Amino acid sequence: MVSRSIPRRKRMIRTKGELAFDIFNVVLMFLIIIITLYPFWFTIVCSFSKVVAGNGITLWPKQFSTTAYSLLLDYDLIWITYRNTIVRCIVGTSLSVFFTAMTAYPLSKREMPFQGVLTNFILITMLFGGGLIPSYILVKDLHMLNTIWALVIPNMLGAYNIFIVRNFFRSIPSSLEESARIDGANWFYIWIRIVVPLAKPVIATIALWSLVGHWNAWFDALIYIRESTRTVVQVILRKITIENSSMDVNAIMAKMSNKDQSPGGETLEAAITVITIVPMLVIYPFLQKYFVKGIMVGSIKG
User: Rounded to two decimals, what is the model's pTM?
Assistant: First the structure.
């Protein structure tokens, strides 16, 4: 028997063109990362700077100071609106996830009566909206002005989220539900004990969308909420960044007895911007692992 020696794998020789292409990609990605991260870093630097440079690139704080944070955190309205924002996010996200999943589950059953009609009815809401004035009149007639429900109920259901969750539910094997039905389980028990646990990726995805949407929203609070103690922190952020002469800025600045140590408007803007975005930066990494899987399966399967 003649033994044949197995030749060693030849080392892949890269051409100069491939090497140049790899170097170009690395440099391009590095530049994109810098362009993406620098605005955020610049905001942090400005929030800790007593003096903000008007032009040029700033990498480190100039005359390091935490006065802006001290003033903002010592301002009672910031804490009140921050609490209102957290309550809005918790209530709004919980209701949105619950009712979206409940709406999507029956729509995922092709044998459901009038399933196509209901699907088209929901689809219409993606193409046409009632408008701002009718929405305001509806909220007013329902006596929801100056309440958290004016911020939560109009945004509770979204057609796109319903279709994403519906498609994910359709990807779950029907044999699981049939086995549970044979054992005597009703549809609600199947939904809460079998379907929902299997749909964690897509539920986490829409929960993240709803959470970020509620946290960043300010326009509805500006319209429906008239009392400053019931509004959200994003409205205060808008007043400080856009209306530098507003009562909120004056109230914060009045807390400084020594005017030489008071921060400028740019520093206050940067500080409250950092305060408002930190929670999302903390929460997002915990939900990121579900995001790609949930959106891909929910979009493709159907």
Answer: 0.76
